Amino acid sequence: MLYGRTTEQERLTQLVAAARAGCSGALLVRGEAGIGKTALLDWLAETAAQPDPEHGDDGRELRILRVTGIEPEADLAFGGLVQLLWPVQSRLDALPEPQAAALRAVLGTGVEQRGPDRFLTGLAVLTVLADLAEDGPLLCLVDDAQWLDQATAEALLFAARRLAAEGVAMVLAGRDDGFSAPGIPELRLNRLGFEDSSRLLADRGRAPALRSQIITESAGNPLALIEFDSARRDQPHQHAPLPVADRVFSAFRSQIGRLPERTRLMMLVAAAEARGDLPLLLRASELLGVDLGDLEEAERSGLMYVMDGTVTFRHPLIASATYQGSVLARRIAVHRALAEAAVDPDCRARHLLAITTAPDQDVALELAEAAARARGRTAYAAASGLFRHAARISTEQETRAAWLTEAATLALAGGHAAQADRLAEEADPLQDDPAVGATIASVRAAVVFELGDQSEAAHGLLARVGDAATPETSGMLRTAAAYGWLAGDEDTVRAAGARLAAGGCSDPLVEGLERLCEDDAEHGLPLLAGFLERRLDAPDIRDVDEQAVRMLALTCGTILGDDEAALDLASTEVRWCRSQGIIGELPYALDVLAQNQVLAGRHRDAEASVTEAEEIARDTGMRQRLARLAAVRARIAAIEGDTQRVRELAEATPEALCTGVDCAGVLLDLGLGDFDSALNRLTPPPPGPDRYIWLSLSTAADQVEAAVRLGQPERAEEALRHFENWAAAGARPRTSATTTPWAQAVVLRCKALLTDQPEHYAQALHLHEKGGRPFERARTELLYGEWLRRARRRNEAREMLRSALTTFERLQAEPWMRRARAELQASGDHLVTARMLADNLIDRLTPQELQVVRLAKDGSSSREIAAQLFLSPRTVEHHLYKAYPKLGVGSRQELVLLDL
Fold it and tell me: Which residues form the signal peptide (predicted)?
């Protein structure tokens, strides 16, 4: 029976009732040791298993999966996930193959390979849970979450955040510290009040006269109430002015100390083994001269249970008290016996680590092998820890350096930048291999980059390289140039290029970036175009290249202004990441995709891409990516005239990353008629590489228009010169498929504004017909329409203005719509005031509904869509169910007929 938990029980009952009705949810129960988390989960498991017609029970049996974190196994990769999924491993065959392979590796039933992405396992867990829920509602209980190994915790939390319409309820229980679950609702358990504490003691037969004393000593902690009540029966005059947790722990140690020595030894074996694996316990105990019968006294006293082939402590604190209350020599003897008796090599490695108190190369090699197995299952945090332990007991300096370096690399891959930096710093003085040194430098630079300072990351790499590149350092210099470019640090780009050239190492990509830093678009853009062309010719080739350079490769199309190529390359990258479950790389690919969707006038698609990228970036700790995604949202908000949204995004974006948001601010000011503010925001133009970001390239036209409106055209001369040089370089014949007709059209529009010569508008519109950037075409039409009206060529003006208005309406560009309507009215088109905004089907959908509908329209099944969008099939069906009535259709077949 539970006391004082009525509110909490109702909350959990509602969660399970929602799962029975097909709605998923997750909840984290927090509280101190002994507060009753496990008791609440036990109650939920018992009551949820019973039919519940009142809360939507449809007669299908509710399945319960349960896992308990084990403190000694916190470094054992996927130990918790094995415990959770072992009973349902037969369901793996129904998973998409990359997911099935990932879980088979976790469970040890498949081939271990170095996985491409640690979050693929989380996606596979989500799919398994959803698949199980197809048979009936599912309750997943996770106890002592603070002791889960990190790989298991990441996979479970990844799945929990994406539960939606599967019929899965997940409840995690953890202590106040040691377990972080951002994005998961929390339920905090408080200590019991006097009345509930009194009822608990009364039901245990405690006389009223002594209840107040016990309640005061326990401070309302349920476990303390029970244990102090028992202690008062045995030692009625005991006083212990310690914190509650310490007193409970002390009470357990005292109780254990009164047991026979053989019982204490057998309990120590169970505590050190931790998993309750009875066969292993029996093999190890035989080596120590004890057996299962020696646990009888522990069972009689209620400290332990032996049932269904498992040995369990009544409370985790009992296991801790058993282990910590034993002397070191006895603990070492027990771990040695467990290591000798272990069949699982990972289990053996864990126990060997516990007994190693001095350098031991043989044990270090076993730990390194265990680390390699964890790495193969993408348990990067666990693998990093094992390599670190192996290095610290290794007797060979070269091996120590290599293992610490690998530990640092894996810590970075696992999202632990600060730990990676500490490990790399520890490895640095030990290494004398240039390749290892290069890796260390790359890790430390990547840490600095992740923490937000790309320029410092580039400088860190340059500092490790001499005056001339070598085969070992050329990759570092390429990465340094990429970091420098992304940071807007042209000096670093030049320095990297100079050292590559001094070493005779040709790198067209770096050379192209150098040229652009000199504002030499004529020679720089063709070099980048050649690089881009090679990528387009072989889009499925994935270079084992530096992350920054891969990021830059996706950006090349935008730097070149080749929207079609950039969109194609980004779409290909997104599809590949989805098909392989490579979630860690997906946010950047989605970012570039969203940028080009905005340029193509596909705002709702861009919002869907950004929404997904933000969700994954939050899950994976990509703070830089979250900030950069703001530029896409700001551009859309600026076009739509949402002043408040642009301001909020500017305030939330770090100053070092604010160029993109500032460019959006220029466009917003221009649309709203605040020409002075528009001109002042980016005057002079952004320095160095920032001149070539996707927004800066077209901001020159905004500045020209604002300057002309203010009667100060000279203030935009530098921006126009840069833009014209860039557009001219993009128009030069070359082998690349890159073309920039939209850019040449915008240059002509700017010239028309500056010279008031209408033939430039006509030439610009001819180029716009070749495609690209509908918003820019509509702006050209608007300006030409204004000129035609002023020239009293009203019929021609109305034709131009109506075309512009149609595009502005489709883009929901409110300020520009107002301008176009005002011009139409001035030209004599009085019907325009009665026109309504076109009813755009995709505007009715949420970003995720739009993604699902688009894929369904293309013929993808629910399971295929789920695998691509990192959702469950049931959630995909839920989104389709919600989208159909919004679109006025009733089936997938009808989606094909819609223009989406």
Answer: none
* CA–CA separation, 818 and 809 (whole Å): 10
Q: Specify burial of residue 583 (Cβ count, 10 A radius: 0-12, 13-18, 19+).
A: buried
**Is a pLDDT exceeding 80 seen at residue 520?**
yes
- Residue whose C-alpha is closest to residue 574's, from 597, 545, 601, 598: 597
* 520 token code pair: 């030499």
Q: Which two tokens stand for residue 404?
A: 């610490």
Q: pTM of this prediction?
A: 0.75
Amino acid occupying residue 96? P
Percent of the chain with pLDDT over 70: 88
What span, in angstroms and rounded, lies between the C-alpha atoms of 534 and 471? Answer: 23
pLDDT at 174: 93
Q: Can you tell me which residue has the tokens 């209980």?
A: 141
- How many whole angstroms separate alpha carbon 676 and alpha carbon 670? 9
> Do the Cβ atoms of 26 and 161 come closer than 8 Å?
yes
CB 71 within 8 A of CB 350: no
d(CA 685, CA 696): 8
Does pLDDT of 420 surpass 50? Answer: yes
Whole-number Å distance between alpha carbons of 250 and 789 = 90
User: Residue 450: its pLDDT value, please?
Assistant: 65
Q: Dihedral (C-alpha) 461, 462, 467, 471: value to the nearest 10 degrees?
A: 30
Q: How far apart are CA 692 and CA 566, in angstroms?
A: 14
Structure tokens that stand for 130 in this block: 């959803």
Largest CA distance in the chain: 108
Of 171, 175, 169, which Cα lies nearest the Cα of 144?
A: 175
Asked if residues 798 and 830 have their Cβ atoms less than 8 Å apart, the reply is: no
- Cα gap 538→529, rounded to integer Å: 14
- Please, what is the average pLDDT of the chain? 84
Whether the CB-CB separation of 575 and 541 falls below 8 Å is answered with no
10 Å CB burial of residue 474 (0-12, 13-18, 19+) is: buried
Identify the three-state secondary structure at position 32: coil
Exposure string over 91-124, b if 16+ CB within 10 A, otherwise e: bbeebbebbbbbbbbbbeeeebeebbbbbbbbbb
Block residue for tokens 């470094």: 75
pLDDT value of residue 900: 72
Given a contact cutoff of 8 angstroms between Cβ atoms, the answer to whether 310 and 325 are in contact is no
Q: 560: which residues sit within 8 A by CB, 6+ positions away?
A: 525, 528, 529, 532, 566, 730, 738, 740
Kindly give the interhelix angle for 194-203 and 222-234, rounded to the nearest 10 degrees. 50
What Rg do the C-alpha atoms of the chain give, in angstroms? Answer: 33
Read off the DSSP letter of residue 303: S
Lay out the sheet containing 138-143: strands in order across: 63-68, 138-143, 168-174, 25-30, 186-188
What 3-state class would DSSP assign to 314? coil
> Can you tell me which residue has the tokens 């000199």?
518
**376: its two tokens:** 């193969």
360-393: pLDDT as tens digits = 999 999 999 999 988 887 778 888 889 999 999 9
Q: Which two tokens stand for residue 563?
A: 């929207």
User: 3-state DSSP call for residue 528?
Assistant: helix
CA atoms within 13 A on the CB side of 140: 31
Helix (H) or strand (E) holding 631: helix 623-640
Question: What gap in Å lies between CA 560 and CA 727, rounded to an integer?
Answer: 9
- Asked if residue 654 has pLDDT above 60, the reply is yes
Q: How far is CA 516 from CA 524, 560, 727, in A?
A: 5, 11, 13
Q: Strand 25-30 vs strand 186-188: parallel, antiparallel, or unpaired?
A: parallel
Query: Token pair 């894929």 is at which residue?
Result: 855
- The answer to whether 257 and 325 are in contact (CB under 8 A) is yes
Sign of the Cα torsion 688, 693, 699, 701 reads positive
Count CB-CB contacts under 10 A for residue 720.
21
Q: How far apart are the first and last CA of the chain?
A: 56
